[in-house]
């Protein structure tokens, strides 16, 4: 069974690109434009990894990180994928429970390595030639 990744990203092009790429790598992916009703989506999809943008139109990623701490999904690894490049942004996200922080734009090889650190692909996709 494929590992499940939830992407919370308001930029349509980024979200669709990440979804397509990660599905090609052997993961099941759900992409969300907004963080509203996150708990409902978590319960329905049961992600094993979350990719989170911090700047969202309705609620910021920091607030979502705080909300996750009070849920059964608090142990699901969250990788922040954000345009915020300041060290204070990174420190704040990590203090709120993010496991890793990547600054956009991120190389796919780097993203793949980090994702696989937290959620290895299925045995069937392990022969994928990409790094």
Structure description:
- By secondary structure, this protein is an alpha/beta fold.
- The protein has one domain (4-125): Response regulator (Rossmann fold, 3-Layer(aba) Sandwich).
- The chain is 37% helix and 18% strand.
- The protein has helices at 12-24, 38-45, 61-68, 87-95, 108-118, and strands at residues 4-8, 28-32, 49-52, 78-82, 100-103.
- Strands 2-1-3-4-5 form a five-stranded parallel beta sheet, sandwiched between helices.
- The longest helix is centred in the N-terminal third of the chain and has 13 residues, at 12-24.
- The chain is globular.
- One of its GO terms (biological process) is phosphorelay signal transduction system.
- Pfam families: Response_reg.
- This is DNA-binding response regulator.
Question: What's the SSE blueprint?
Answer:
Elements: E1 4-8, H1 12-24, E2 28-32, H2 38-45, E3 49-52, H3 61-68, E4 78-82, H4 87-95, E5 100-103, H5 108-118
Parallel strand pairs: 1-2, 1-3, 3-4, 4-5
Residue share in β-strands: 15-25%
- Helices and strands: which structural class? alpha/beta
CATH architecture, by name, is: 3-Layer(aba) Sandwich
Largest sheet: 5 strands, parallel
Mean pLDDT: 92
The total tally of domains equals: 1
Per CATH, what is the topology? Rossmann fold
CATH superfamily: Response regulator
The ordered string of helix (H) and strand (E) elements is: EHEHEHEHEH
The tally of helices reads: 5
Task: Name the overall outline.
Answer: globular
**Which percent range fits the helix content?**
25-40%
Low-confidence stretches: 124-131
* Secondary structure tally: strands: 5
The N- and C-terminal alpha carbons lie at a distance of: 21 Å
Main sheet strand line-up = 2-1-3-4-5
């Amino acid at each position: 069974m494929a590992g499940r990744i939830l992407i919370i990203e308001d930029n349509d092009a980024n979200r669709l690109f990440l979804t397509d790429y990660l599905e090609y790598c052997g993961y099941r992916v759900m992409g969300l434009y907004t963080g509203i009703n996150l708990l409902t989506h978590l319960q329905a999809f049961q992600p094993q990894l979350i990719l989170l943008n911090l700047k969202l139109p309705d609620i910021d990623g920091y607030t979502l990180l705080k909300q996750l701490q009070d849920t059964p999904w608090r142990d699901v690894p969250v990788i922040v994928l954000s345009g915020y490049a300041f060290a204070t942004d990174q420190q704040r996200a990590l203090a709120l429970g993010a496991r890793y922080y990547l600054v956009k734009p991120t190389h796919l090889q780097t993203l793949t390595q980090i994702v696989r650190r937290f959620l290895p692909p299925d045995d069937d996709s392990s022969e994928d030639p990409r790094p």
